[in-house]
Specification:
This protein is an alpha/beta fold and 177 residues long. It is built from five helices and six strands, in the order E-E-E-H-E-H-E-H-E-H-H. The longest helix is centred in the first third of the chain and has 17 residues. The termini are far apart.
Amino acid sequence: MAAPRITTLEPTYATGNWNDLFIGVWRGAMTVNDVRVWGVEHQRMAAAFPRGFASFVLVEKQVPLPEHEIRRALARGMDLAGSSIRAMAGIQEARGFAAAVFHSLQTALSSLATSTYPRKAFGTVPDAAAWIALYLGTTPTDVSGPAVTEAVETFRTMIAAPGATAEPTPRPRISRG
């Protein structure tokens, strides 16, 4: 398996990709600028994968729920590369009430966004990986759920390593629309 790439590494989030899979990990409170960077990363993926890509977003259990302004920015960001996104899996590691609120929030964000790609919320990486694998590669059998799980867990290990850095990547212009 080729290793995933780290494209953005900040204290509160990290982004990267493994082939045509965008991987994003929220590790702390989001800002509007953080959300804009994610939009730029999705635009970068759209440019790199003209046939489309899938998005795998993991929210760690300590991340607070985003404020209204952040939720609106997330919905706008979902639309920036919407026509290029094949599917989006959202994983909330929190359990109980926090997980229920996350699932409700994802539903609300989906209703605010105008893009229509499939999206689904999950509680574990393996469950999300099995679902998102169907949207990766050039045919539905190119990528397996266990391979996606391995790529995501490798990415998490990479971003947690002391001295981890992001690879320099060309960035498309930010759309402020």
